[in-house]
């Protein structure tokens, strides 16, 4: 008797499950099928509304000129000198320093005025105006060299970009030159390195590209600071006049014209683009806020308050 009831209960259970799982039953859609979207349906919703199967990529908000304007934020490409923790801490210190002093955009060839603390000066400050002939190194060790000829004497001063003794950095003339460094101005005529210490700043319209000065300097006769005939310079006009046949042959022997085709050497000299985006994404928000504050102050300086007519 008990066995009969057990078999009947099992039969009724099986019949009930078949009934609710039948395609025509209203309970079948709610109980026997998953409510999750199929993988194909989820992928179709991610595609663009135009019907293309390619996923849409987000555009980068980082301006492409950041790698040139803020080149000191990029670490040294040499692998043996890399340290991710030190680089991150240095970037934080550099941003804190930029919050206290305005470090404008300038390049090799720009005319810059630097005001720094000097305990031996009369007003405890010293101001020097000169053309930037070199920018090198990275991080907190980034530095630049200014050159000017005063009283027929060439003077060069090297500044650390993030030196706490710097009080003010002004760009009097923003421009670039044809070469990456202008160390050959040491052997050029004085007129190419002479600038007025009371020079007024030349303000470019906002959003205009940085002009490139294609002037070619004239070198003095030898001896020179370096063998400039071996450097493939674009900004020197008379380098062949002071180069004889023997020096020209030696320059051809040590020349390496194939290096411009060496992709691996170029890769080792630079930071990969993916890593650059990662670094600038980290510091973009603070740099952007500093840029907006600088533009606001620039507009205030350029605004001339109208005088009241009599």
TrEMBL record:
It holds the Pfam family Ribosomal_L19. It is found in: Mitochondrion. GO terms for molecular function: structural constituent of ribosome. GO terms for cellular component: mitochondrial large ribosomal subunit. GO terms for biological process: translation. It comes from Anopheles epiroticus. This is Large ribosomal subunit protein bL19m. InterPro entries: Ribosomal_bL19, Ribosomal_bL19_sf, Translation_prot_SH3-like_sf. Keywords: Mitochondrion, Ribonucleoprotein, Ribosomal protein, Transit peptide. Belongs to the bacterial ribosomal protein bL19 family. PANTHER family: LARGE RIBOSOMAL SUBUNIT PROTEIN BL19M, RIBOSOMAL PROTEIN L19. Its main location: mitochondrion. It comes from the Eukaryota.
């Amino acid at each position: 008797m008990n066995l009969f009831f057990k078999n009947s209960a099992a039969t009724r259970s099986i019949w009930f499950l078949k009934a609710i799982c039948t395609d025509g039953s209203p309970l079948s859609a709610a109980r026997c099928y998953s409510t999750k979207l199929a993988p194909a349906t989820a992928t179709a919703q991610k595609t663009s509304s135009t019907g293309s199967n390619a996923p849409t990529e987000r555009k980068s908000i980082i301006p492409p000129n950041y790698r040139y304007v803020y080149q000191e934020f990029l670490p040294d490409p040499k692998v043996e000198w890399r340290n991710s923790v030190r680089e991150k801490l240095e970037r934080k210190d550099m941003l804190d320093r930029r919050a206290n002093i305005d470090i404008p955009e300038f390049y090799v060839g720009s005319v810059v005025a630097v005001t720094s603390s000097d305990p031996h000066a009369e007003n405890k400050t010293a101001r020097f105006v000169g053309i930037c002939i070199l920018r090198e190194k990275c991080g907190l060790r980034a530095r630049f060299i200014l050159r000017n000829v005063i009283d027929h004497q060439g003077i060069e001063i090297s500044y650390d970009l993030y030196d706490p003794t710097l009080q003010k950095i002004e760009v009097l003339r923003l421009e670039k030159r044809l070469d990456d460094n202008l160390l050959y101005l040491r052997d050029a005529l004085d007129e190419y390195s002479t600038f007025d210490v009371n020079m007024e700043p030349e303000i470019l319209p906002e959003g205009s590209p940085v002009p490139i000065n294609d002037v070619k300097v004239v070198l003095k006769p030898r001896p020179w600071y370096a063998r400039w005939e071996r450097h493939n310079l674009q900004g020197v006009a008379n380098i062949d006049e002071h180069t004889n046949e023997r020096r020209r042959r030696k320059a051809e022997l040590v020349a390496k014209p194939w290096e411009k085709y060496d992709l691996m050497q170029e890769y080792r000299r630079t930071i990969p683009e993916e890593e650059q985006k990662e670094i600038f994404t980290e510091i973009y928000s603070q740099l952007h806020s500093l840029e907006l504050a600088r533009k606001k102050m620039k507009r205030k300086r350029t605004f001339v308050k109208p005088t009241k007519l009599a």
